[in-house]
Fold this protein.
Amino acid sequence: MSGHAPAPPDDRVTPVEWAFAPVVSTWFLGQYLLTGQALGLSGRAGAIAVAGYSALVVLTVVVLTSVPAARRRGASGHAVERALRRHEDPGPGLRERADRQAHHAAAFGWGAWLFPVALVCFLAAGVLQRPWPAVVVGGLLMTASTVVATRWLRGRAADARRWLADPPGPPRAAPVAGWGFRWASGRRGGALVAVVVLVVVLVVIALGAGTALLVS
């Protein structure tokens, strides 16, 4: 166990903690341009859904960064995230929560690769069905979002593994994982996702081939 002193209380929301929401919003916008649908909706409904989601993201960030009551309410979660990122003791009452969060982030680190795989699938669908300007702009937005999201998730998983290898603070028992968590995490979870992704890719290819035959 590391002997780092507990981190001082701080209710500020740092950019690293709230910037992921705009990244997801940009992803959905790119998806809509690339495929004509997003958030399970297509056409005008999809555009309204993306605009509504983006407005909600902006409103949430403004509230979290400017309203004192909201900052205080989310202070413990932000403290845990900062402690994991900086590898420092969050103090009594938050250590066990940080342990659980690190355990989860490390076990499901393979989730970072869902963004690149989904990007390839959406690009394949967009190239076959959408106008080139929409494909180029949507593809660039989704690619930028993918790079940022993948790097952030992989960095978070690395921070979590470092935490689990040397938890800051006094000695304590490691969190106990249930059978469902153990089954879905690690290599088995990654293998399950790989199978699902393979099926999705085959479906996208089949739909694209069918569309091309109908057009010709």
User: Anything to note?
Assistant: The chain has one domain: 15-169+179-215. The chain has ten helices and two strands. Residues 15-169+179-215 form one domain.
